[in-house]
Write a structure and sequence with these properties.
Blueprint (H helix, E strand, L loop, with lengths): L1 E8 L8 E6 L2 H10 L22 E6 L9 E12 L5 E18 L4 E7 L6 H28 L11 H4 L2 H11 L3 H9 L3 H34 L1
Helix pairs in contact: 2-4, 2-6, 4-6
Amino acid sequence: MEQLPIFPMNMVGLPSARVTLHIFEARYRVLFNTLLDGLEDVDEGMVQKESKFCGTKRFGLLYVDPKGKISSVGCKLEIEHHKQLADGRMMVVSRGVERFKIRKVIQEKPVLLAEVEILEDEEEEAGLQECEGLAAEVRELFCSTLTLGKKMQGKAPQGKFPGELFELPAQRLSFWIASMLSGAEEQQKLLEMPSVKQRLDREKELLKGTLDYLSATSALKGALGEMDDA
């Protein structure tokens, strides 16, 4: 168990994926300046030196759905970059580290503070190795979907895909792919899935469905174009 300051937001943080936040509320400006204590451009007047989180750069992100319900499973993030704006606002870029589940709320104001349990996937090492084959299928589907999508938009494929797609092992890849999918609620479901295989299976299903749709749409456009030329 560990304690984390929590930032509730209508977006989902996922391990290995980057999240960009615009910080403007006074209470969160205090929090983030405190987390970044020790860096040259931190607003010292906003830093709570007595805080146990001073200079740690780590916080938790929890998804808030359209009805205002806060999820109990979130992602621990670590700040990578930040920019102080002239009016005191901040832009903060963080990367997901690991999943957690809220076990106890310690305080609600001025910011949420909770005791969390880090969540591990169900697979043992052997199970993770078996997931690499499934990860390869998901990589191929992602590349094919992205390439066809760009082609249909009239954009020439650049020949380069994000480095994470080929560098990450199956477990981290399953989260990174989730961050590339649209829809916060779907991303939250993937975040909460207890195993790498479940996440990759779902992502394979979603990507295959998208690719089939794009292929059918492309074929229909091609057929209609031939009819117009006739």
